[in-house]
Amino acid sequence: MVQLEESKCDLLIVGAGPAGLMAATWAARCGIHARILDKRRTKIFHGQADGLQCRSLEIFDSFGFADRVWKESNHLLEMCLWNPDETSRIRRTDTIPDTIPGISRFQQVVLHQGRIERVFLDSLKDYSEIEIERGVVPEQLEIDHSKADDDHAYPIKVKIRYLDDDEAAPVQHGTNVPDGLFRSSLAEDDTDDLIRKSQRKKGSIEVIRAKYLIGCDGAHSWTRRQLGFRMEGEQTDFVWGVLDIVPITNFPDIRMRCAIHSAESGSIMIIPRENRLVRLYIQLKEVNSEVDRSKITPEIILKAAQNIISPYKLAYDYCDWWTAYQIGQRVGNSFSCDDRVFLAGDAVHTHSPKAGQGMNVSMQDTYNLGWKIGLVVKGLAKRSILRTYQSERRRVAQDLINFDRRFSRLFSGRPARDAADEAGISMAEFKVAFEKGNMFASGLAVDYGASILVAKPGDSADQGDGTDVDTVTNSTDRVVGKQELASNIKLGMRFPSFQVLNQSDARPWHFGQFLKSDGRFRIIILAGNLRDEKQWKRLEDFGDLLAKPDSVIRRYTPSEKPIDSVIEILVIHSALRQEVELLDIHEIFHPFDEKRGWDYEKVFVDDLSYHQGHGEAYKNYGVDKERGCVVIARPDQYVGWIGEIEDVEDIDRYFSEVLIPQV
Ligand code: FAD
């Protein structure tokens, strides 16, 4: 047996699915030393998740790769509802927009998980040395709890084992078409088997000491088992089949997203995909909850689909992938141990895939966590910010399960025959629930509670486990933002994006494009009407304070780094562009670099574009065009604080809870 040396890393990620890849992407952008392991030999090439919310696309855009996904994906614009008429024949009863118009610069799209993982892998290559270590399983986890609060310690010890190629390949179930049963809720997990087999063969092992670990190892999470954490919730009786096919059909809405409820044969969700593919989620009525998965075949699933969609015809010549699953709606009882080992993604929440949420919420878990670990490892932020991971994400997971319960019941139930049929599902209720659910399903309804990172007025948030936030942060004197200054920039929600113009070249941009995921906090100054002398002076005074040697931006920035490397300042004013000169504005708002000159990408204006109309940013943000306001956006674009231009002390107090002085 080859015993490899012990090694160290800042962050160890177990599992290279969407959650693990997002965590690795943050590690790459923050520049910390991370490793990412996966027990499988290859990435996913077919099937699995495919729906992307607008919020996920905004996040991809902040990393600079949304354009690839936007181009390759199929765009979902309309949703058609099909229901039985009085003769039990299915008919189109409604059409609704798939994404609520105007809520984001993106709409919901579909692209299979393998392509999405590819985009992540390419971005990792561009920004770091991080590579997925495949065919590797962790087999032992030890945590030295006594060192959990020591910023410099490596309290996590993981023994990993290298598998050979055969061991790392998932078992398939006898058809020529790739299936996802090995990842389905109907399959047993094979991790322990893999470890045992490899131990017998004396496969090589390595010991890794890590500062932090994230278990992104899916629904059967090994990491969760080591921590002894439980999943709470229940398994439903509904069994569903999934087919990714190129359909041959006379059903008229096959290129629309459809929810079809048949009178007696169950329901189908149709998701039109890239390359003429269509995904069908099909309720398997004749398979009960005691499922023997070896009996489920693509033919059985197709037969069920044909019954539901009748009298329309449905067949296929090409099937790309298929699977079957039973819906379990569960949330982990805890998301973190000592704020050193974390769980994310399917490892802490599982639910039905039809609403297209799992991959999105999983990626967004580690999108929430990755920058926090990055800044703490780099010594820029206090460890206490890590506590907000559980308080922020466990609540999202609980909301997701509640949403899924409502949605699955309405989708899996039999349509009511008439108003007196209480056992049936009212199709009017389904439509209303669907329309309401659309906001949740966009990912834009996420609203983080009060914490050291969200200066919300009113009640303190609970930590997702019932603990009060002020106990957790030990803060008696938490700063509170002034929500009334910006009615549509909500504390705890992501900073919305509207069109503004670059002051120096008149080019229109969606402001969100400047909120990059690079680990920086941002002070966004909505500077108001700079043609007004008083307003100009308010901004100049603010600039003078920020430029002082002990100002908030200097205090938290390492002396050898550029002044905007920890906190970036962006300005949007509301005067006419041509009546303001960039170089007249205080230098701190467009800093000078000896090699690169002035920074021309920090001052923007809410004005008319030559070719793309007026973004009306102030109006849309709900901010007074004369006086403006100031907003702190976290590195993940969520709004941390809102105040007046004079509220410099509050800005100081916000950052003093979160960041570590560097001087
Ligand atoms: P996973 O994707 O499960 O990744 C876990 C990774 O960890 C895997 O690569 C696995 O090999 C690895 N691993 C597991 N155990 C170990 C171990 N012990 N050691 C090392 N590595 C390990 N979600 C959506 O958002 N939109 C959709 O449209 C959608 N459709 C779906 C359709 C189907 C049919 C299914 C089954 C799911 C769908 N989902 C959808 C859900 C989505 O696939 C999951 O929620 C998402 O993949 C979770 O990501 P994850 O990274 O947490 O876990």
Automatic annotation (TrEMBL):
SUPFAM superfamilies, per this entry?
FAD-linked reductases, C-terminal domain (SSF54373), FAD/NAD(P)-binding domain (SSF51905), Thioredoxin-like (SSF52833)
Keyword set, alphabetical order: FAD, Flavoprotein, Oxidoreductase
Give residue ranges for domain Phenol hydroxylase-like C-terminal dimerisation: 446-662
Start and end residues of each FAD-binding domain: 9-403
Question: Keyword Flavoprotein on this protein?
Answer: yes
Name the domain of life this protein comes from.
Answer: Eukaryota
Q: Does the keyword Flavoprotein apply?
A: yes
Q: Which GO terms describe its molecular function?
A: FAD binding; oxidoreductase activity, acting on paired donors, with incorporation or reduction of molecular oxygen, NAD(P)H as one donor, and incorporation of one atom of oxygen
- What family is reported? Belongs to the PheA/TfdB FAD monooxygenase family.
- The protein, known as: Phenol 2-monooxygenase
Q: What is the lineage of its organism?
A: Eukaryota, Fungi, Dikarya, Ascomycota, Pezizomycotina
